[in-house]
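Continuing from the previous page of notes. For each protein in this section, the sequence appears first, followed by its structure tokens. Read the first protein now.
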Amino acid sequence: MTDVAIHPESLKEIVSTALGEKAKRVVVALGEVTVVVDAGDYLAAMQILRDAPGCRFESLIDLCGVDYSTYMDTVWEGARFCVVSHLLSVSLNQRVRVKVFCPDDGLPLVASVTGLWAGANWFEREAFDLYGIVFDGHNDLRRILTDYGFVGHPFRKDFPLSGHVEMRYDAERQRVVYEPVSIEPREITPRIIREDKYGGGLH
């Protein structure tokens, strides 16, 4: 294990060389390296990042979904759903972020990386539950935070603030029951104005 972290520009070159044409884009912003790959190359690219000698990202420390449909209050031209992973190399003291966009907004689908990092299991279930992103090859893809009877995916930006159904305990039936939401939704979120270069311009 090395104590000295590699310079982000040097890591960018190492990752770019290792991935070759599988990297659509490799950028450095705010001192961090981000790789964008196509959904078709995602699993192979992740295996390279785990196994290549200069990469050795043996730990997946986070994986989440993103809904870009209203990104930064502007019209977003690309695919709506994205899976973002953060990888750590303990042995080489370096980190990288990987982004893959789901090619079909109607059925967001990417490969599962549970075969590479077992720790991706619950992360992928969470992204499925909250965003509806399907991970092909996951052997137990089911909801993890919401209830089995939950309707929709609550982190999608078009999901109503009040939800679709509400649950309560029915004393007569002695069980939990689901009923349509009985409150009128209202917009209470203040408009957020960001500076032009907020977030370093990374998309």
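Done with the first. The second protein uses the same format. Note its length before scrolling.
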Amino acid sequence: MVDVVAPSRRTKRDTRLRTLALISAAHWVSHFHMLVLPMLFPFLKTALNIDYIELGFVLTVFAVVSALTQAPTGYLVDHFGARKILLIGLCLGGASLGLLGLHLSYPVLIASAVLLGLANSVYHPADYAILAAHMDEARMGRAFSIHTFAGYLGGAMAPMIVAALMTSLGGITALMVCGATGPLVAVLLLAFDVPEAGENRRKDASGHASQRSIITPTLILLTIFFMLLGLSTSGISNFGVVALMNGFSASFSTANVALTAYLVASALGVLAGGFLADRTDRHSQVAAICLGINAAVLLMIALVTLPPALLTMTMATAGFLGGMIAPSRDMLVRSAAPEGAAGRAFGIVSTGFNFSGILSPLLFGWLMDQSLPRWVFSISALFMVLTVVLALFTERKREPDNARVGTV
């Protein structure tokens, strides 16, 4: 019996590892593609002879389209299958950059932002639906953390990859090469047979597909939770360097080192948070504790002018605590999602991040325009306090009829 069972277990484990690697690769592309256009702004400004406000409008279009299409895409994932939608998203994102490389003009740049926004709406609903269906229940938190870490890595690698391509091959070729990563990963997903998820709509007693709405109070609270969480971190990521330079007399190099420490520690915190999420079912309390400590850390940065070494260490602490929240955050959504509706659930709550992406530049940019750089950290801390309060109301246990019957 042992000789029969052991190979079966190894096969399941290998399938899960392969699935996690493939979905993480897709998430890497997601974050990489999000930063390709911003990294090419100097080239696009010169090539198209446009102003920065016109370039900023491109990012606004991307954020608005992503926000409006996340929830509908979640429905498509559950209705038609996550694998199919994910493959379409990867190819669509690649095509948007390739199209701009072939026809470089401002109208095509706007169209590229629209297509990138549509592609971006695919990843969270499709990725999490597949992971929720096929990962080992006991290691779900770690699976979510590795997936999130891959996205962070894609964003971190984008500047140096785009810069290298731009320097050696030029802007047009950089667009084409960066766009090719989407279809290339789609081919990998097909070649290594990433499993399907979704398309298993629950049926009622009469045998018809259930039309029960999944928009519950818990998911609404989680959407607001995601928005507040995005607002609490995006200000530091986007305006941290200029805030430290203008409000704390930090040099450019000191501010950049501090922000780099913050971002690297965030990625490491995500991995640590995955282990923690697998060892407790009190995910809301984990999020609340990490957020509460982090708010105190940010408030200290806002109120006290720290020497460079201590500033870097404090920023790293804030980043690590912020990263630790991510796996518990995702576990909260998974617990709140009805069976067979993971795509829709993650699609709905992810709109919170999109809304924060729209509001954050306006709010924190206004603070900088008002010569209030220390308030970048104070307001971020305030959003974290609000998130702590909300976190304590976001956890809902699955009802018995929604209990999982096993994993593949």
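What the second structure shows: The domain at 217-398 is CATH 1.20.1250.20 (Growth Hormone; Chain: A;). The radius of gyration is 21 Å. We return to this in next week's lecture.
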